[in-house]
Model the fold of this input.
Amino acid sequence: MRRILWFRRDLRSEDNPILSLEGEVLPIFIFDTDILASLRCNDRRVTFIYSAIMNLKASLRELGLDLAIFYGKPKEVFGWLLSQSAFDTVCASGDYDEYARERDRGISHLLPFIDLHDTYIFRSDEVLKNDGTPYQVFTPYYNRAKALFHQEHLKEYHRNEALERIPFDYDVLHRIQGTSHTTAPIRLESIGFAPQVLSARQLRTPKEKLECFAAKIENYPLERDYMVLEATSGLSMDLRFGTLSIRALLRWIVAQQKEGKQTEPFFRQLIFRDFYAMLLYHFPYLSQKNFRYPFKGIPDQDAFNAFCTASTGVPIIDAGVRELLESGEMHNRVRMICASFFTKNLLLPWQWGEAFFAEHLNDYDAASNILSWQWSAGTGIDPQPYFRIFNPYTQTAKFDRECRYIKHHLPELAAVPAKLLHTEDAFQNCLLSNYPRPIVNHKSSSQRALDYFKSVLQQ
Ligand code: FAD
Done:
């Protein structure tokens, strides 16, 4: 049996089901030009992926295998590979967003496609209602998921000794365009991207992040919403690109639990991730269309530009967007406050905000991002009620009391007393020469949103 092992969202050799197969194998990674074409050449995620695949290549070599690296459209890469040699199957871990499913369908017409389960805890059809339909509300999904959770979800996969490396030129980058094939050195610059400096937190290995988080998991439910505490795991990028196995993370959680630690609130967030992936799988139209209410928002280019350039004059919003632009990160609580402000106070279409986050978030994941935006906009499945609107100032007073987060990202506000940033009135009346006045007033913009939502519902 000659197999192509296609690594995509599982960029690791440890605990990877793809390596538990047997036969002669050609492990590959494809820098997909269909995806890369829309990215800026300084995209941090490409640096992260590049570094992950170089680590993967090194660890596969230690196992007597290797990784062939391609640059091109997946269909053309497979066409070229099949013109060079005969293969029986391609094996890859399932990838569920619309683009990925369409891409995989195309490849399956060229070669039998074996879809392995890896990225999520549950398969997309594993946690369903009694009538076989997907859950649309999180809590019952969560309860069912917990009831179905068993040892198999903790299984650790090992390299099959019967795997044999297919001879190939593994030392160069293979560039495929149409049917033409050229080679280049394996470097980021060869695919048109400039190496980026990643933050200290981004550079930590999953093992280091877990060691650090072990001391914090007990306080996770109490502290996770406070922006400056770094109380969360910081693992979203590792889960996104598979540099950490979800099953290894679950085994780690079980070990923490055996030490008597409270782990359920953290586990619940992982189930949220599964829930969103399951929803996008069953309802792919959600990537663009509302699930429930026909709220479209009101396009306003000036308000959108102010949001995207961190110049709304609302400190917690501008601090969050500045963090996003400068590091590709944004704390979960700030994502929620920003998305509420965007879709309610500014009444902008959630799709615009989703696309802006997609462009900048290091951990961008279609399912989590789309469903979170729909949740914030009150349009999705199991949504935040449309009439609930976060007040960015009271959120600041609650979760960034001393305004350390705001002042870190907006140093121009360093000298402003924290209390002034907790209330809108005080801040609107205080004219700062180096910071814009708020583009909206919370009370009146909330009322405008409520009026808009009601008028849409009455139509
Ligand atoms: P932790 O709190 O340590 O959580 C552990 C893991 O659980 C995370 O790494 C993540 O995989 C998962 N998780 C946690 N919270 C959520 C959640 N609310 N929904 C789904 N999964 C969750 N997360 C992404 O991974 N990619 C996105 O593109 C993304 N976009 C978002 C957009 C908006 C508007 C909002 C409100 C949330 C979004 N999230 C997204 C969810 C969440 O903000 C991040 O997963 C979290 O901030 C990552 O930090 P962490 O790894 O320290 O999380």
